[in-house]
Amino acid sequence: MLLNYLYINFFEETQFANAVGTTTEDIQSLIAARVFPAPSYAYDVKGRSVSFVAEFKDHQTYRFHLRGHTDWYRDITQLRLDTEVRARDHFFDRYDHAKAAFLTSSLGVELQAQAPNVVNQFDDEHSNSTWGHFLNGVYGVCTRDGRPESVFLKQAGVMFIEQMIGDSPDKPSPAKSELLRRTVNFLDGVESDFAPHEAPKSSRQRSIEDVRAQYFDLKAA
């Protein structure tokens, strides 16, 4: 079950290297240089094969990179983002563009009116944490494509939802209920499904599945 999820949503490191036309050594060098995310999952396998000819024992660690991170690899190679400073600046150029577009959108404006304190949380400390989590492969786990734009949208969706339900633990007004529903649906489009063993304790469970069940009487299929 887990391996099915990983091979559907991720490339094993050798597959990833082949997909972007490089080597696993190059990928590992970029990770060490802090310009490319570490694998989102490491899967240790101990195996034993027995046949008429011989017995074989094996122990391998498979490293899985989000398929969407091929986009980031092309950015850092084509734009020569060969230092952490350059890679981080590019990341936040894209992240901040997504932030500005969202906050001026209809949904963003309505959410700021309901939860004005959320925007203040996007400070320098938050930026440092975001970049660290990106490099550690965290956003390969919790977003569908790992792109800087999706990282912001995932963060914003979770933060606005948490603020809205924290302020109104009981059933909200019809207008606020509709805004909450739209925000949950929006977050559903950017947040990953998570691996089977992670799903019950994930932000998807808290901010999407639980909210739908509590406020809208919708249970996951």
Q: How would you characterize this protein structure?
A:
With 221 residues, this protein is mainly alpha-helical. It folds into 2 domains: 2-69, no CATH class; 82-216, no CATH class. Helix content is 59%, strand content 11%. It has 11 helices and 3 strands. Strands 1-3-2 form a 3-stranded antiparallel sheet. Helix 5 packs across helix 9 (148-167) and helix 6 (106-114) crosses helix 10 (174-188). It is flat, with a radius of gyration of 20 Å. It starts with a helix and ends in a 5-residue tail after the last helix.
Task: State the helical fraction.
Answer: 55-70%
Number of helices: 11
The helix/strand class is mainly alpha
Tally of structural domains = 2
Number of strands: 3
Q: Distance between termini?
A: 18 Å
Q: Segments where pLDDT lies below 50 for 5+ residues?
A: none
Fill in the keyword field for this structure.
mainly alpha; three-stranded antiparallel sheet; 11 helices; flat; 221 residues; 2 domains
SSE blueprint:
Layout: H1 2-9, E1 10-12, H2 13-20, H3 24-32, E2 41-50, E3 55-66, H4 69-78, H5 84-103, H6 106-114, H7 124-135, H8 138-142, H9 148-167, H10 174-188, H11 203-216
Antiparallel strand pairs: 1-3, 2-3
